[in-house]
Amino acid sequence: MQKDIEKILLSREAIAERVRELGEQISRDYQGKNLLVVGILKGALVFMADLVRQINIPVRLDFMVVSSYGSSSETSGVVRILKDLDMSVEGWHVLLVEDIIDTGLTLKYLRDNLLARGPESVKICALLDKPARRRVEVQADYCGFTIPDAFVVGYGLDYAEKYRNLPDLCVLKPEAWQK
Ligand code: IMP
Ligand code: MG
Q1: Which CATH number describes the domain made up of 12-147?
Q2: What are the boundaries of each domain within the chain?
Q3: Tens digits of residue pLDDT in 13-37
Q4: Nearest CA to ligand 1 atom 11
Q5: What residues are labeled active site?
Q6: Binding pocket residue ranges, ligand 1, CB within 6 Å
Q7: What is the pTM of this model?
Q8: Can you tell me the distance from the alpha carbon of 131 to that of 171, in angstroms, rounded to the nearest whole number?
Q9: Is pLDDT larger for residue 176 or for residue 81?
Q10: DSSP string of 47-81?
């Protein structure tokens, strides 16, 4: 796995420090509110597990599994919900947790979909933002890092379902893409 890695873009230490800051900010902003943290699987798994442990107010957790049609490194804009929330969002402030905002198509679809269900609010927390590739208007209310337009893996992010378990966020070698 390591031989496919070009470089480490964000070390586990740098990520941990930023996740701590995000957790503090979220804890302050949602004080006294019913906070429902919704993880978008599978990419958000690692980030969400770390993030919620840095939030010091009560939270509920739920998950959605989505898939976009298309190849593994290009999104098509058509989002399918493969697993929906277990609970109703009425009365809850929803915080959508995602690994990365790339074209923005996935999060725009999910945000609009959840807003239509009548929650108190819907906000977005993304570990990474790649603004260079945005195709629709959507912004993270909480963003870990803005990164350049490179394909990154690790810390939950995959290429063709591989590399999610790398502890650091890494850039793949071009050869690993073409395999
Ligand atoms: P969007 O709908 O284009 O914003 O795509 C978001 C999804 O594309 C993310 O949840 C990832 O699964 C995937 N994605 C986009 N860029 C990368 C990347 O650099 N590495 C791994 N996955 C990515
Ligand atoms: Mg994903």
Answers
A1: 3.40.50.2020
A2: 12-147
A3: 999 999 999 999 999 999 999 999 9
A4: 100
A5: 102
A6: 43, 75, 98-107, 151-153, 157
A7: 0.94
A8: 17
A9: 81
A10: HHHHHHTT--S-EEEEEEEEEESS-SSS--S-EEE
